[in-house]
Amino acid sequence: MRSKNLILLLLIFMFALISCRLYKLERRLDNEDKEFLSNVRYIISKGEKKIYLEIPKEDRENFKKEFWKRRDTEPDTEENEFKTLYFERIKEANRLFTSGKEGWLTDRGRIYILLGPPINKSFYPFGDSTVPYSRPQEIWHYPDFLVLFVDYHGTGDYQYSYLSLSHQTWVNEALLEAKKPYLQKEEIFDYSVKIKRTDDKFFLVIELNKQHLWMKKKEEDLVTTLEIEIEIFDMSRQELWKHRENYQITSPANVLNQVTSSKETIEIELDLPPGTYILNSKIKNLTDNQKRNKSKTIKIE
Asked: Which pLDDT belongs to residue 253?
């Protein structure tokens, strides 16, 4: 036990020494090299930064060329589209979010630069009207998730916030993927989420295409199990409703490719009053462990 503690202390000590050394190297950079590190702060990896700080001054120009080359999404063209888009987003973030400090250095600027403009924005300048002292909020909607910003101090500086640990994980995963566009993975399946009212009851309706699911053979059918998790919050980010259940999906193997037979609909009854809510959903296919997340604002009316 004592030897394990000693090893841990040695590792902590070594890490502190390395961090201190890199900090000193960074402080010694000239303005041009400091500017490069500042500009790429959102996309440079720890390993790349360490190499950049340790190599001789005369090798840094070549490093910069290779840095952008590795991120060129269309290497057959003269222009580096990724680099061009990155700096265009910095410029746009400064135009949109500068308030007290440069817009690209704010939380909204960082998200905008890495993920691009959202498909939609929801503004709540007075926060949740049903909650006393609620703070102004912005919600940015992306295809698979939403990003929440809150102006905690009333200064116009909207800070990134999250609804739950799972929501934070989804956003962080998206940000990590955005840092490496040349390694983007294609999604395996997709699904839609809607609200349906039948008489005086409300249902969450999930629809997906079984053709895009990895399924396994069982007798004469193809089957898989979907793990579905749902979280619903009010606009003050208080969790109101949670649902987690496994659903078995079955399809006769000989009709799976027929469009009319490939749709699967799952209905889940909601126990919530009318209102506007934030919904997080995650579906995991237990056959191949592929998962897909979605977040959106919903209205029950």
From this structure: 65
The 10s digit of each residue's pLDDT in 40-95 is: 999 998 888 888 888 888 888 998 998 998 888 888 888 999 999 999 999 999 99
Say whether pLDDT at 13 is over 70: no
Residue 88 CB coordination number (10 Å): 11
Q: Which residue has the tokens 């939380």?
A: 107
Determine whether 118 is exposed, middle or buried from the number of CB atoms within 10 Å of its CB (0-12, 13-18, 19+). Answer: middle
* pLDDT band per the 50, 70, 90 thresholds, residue 19: low
Strands 239-252 and 221-233 come out as antiparallel
For residues 233 and 278, what is the distance between their CA atoms, to the nearest angstrom? 5
Q: Which domain holds residue 282?
A: 191-300
Residues 210 and 226 in one domain: yes
Backbone angles phi, psi at 208, to 5 degrees: -145, 165
**Domain total of the chain:** 3
Which of 183, 204, 234 is the endpoint of a domain?
A: 183
Q: How many CA atoms lie within 13 A of 113 on its CB side?
A: 25
Q: Which of 152, 183, 214 marks a domain boundary?
A: 183
Paired tokens of 106: 């704010």
- For residue 152, pLDDT over 80 is answered with yes
CB 106 within 8 A of CB 92: no
Q: Give the other-Cβ count within 10 Å of 232's Cβ.
A: 21
Q: Distance between CA 114 and CA 109 in Å, rounded?
A: 9
Among positive and negative, which fits the CA dihedral 17, 21, 26, 28?
Answer: positive
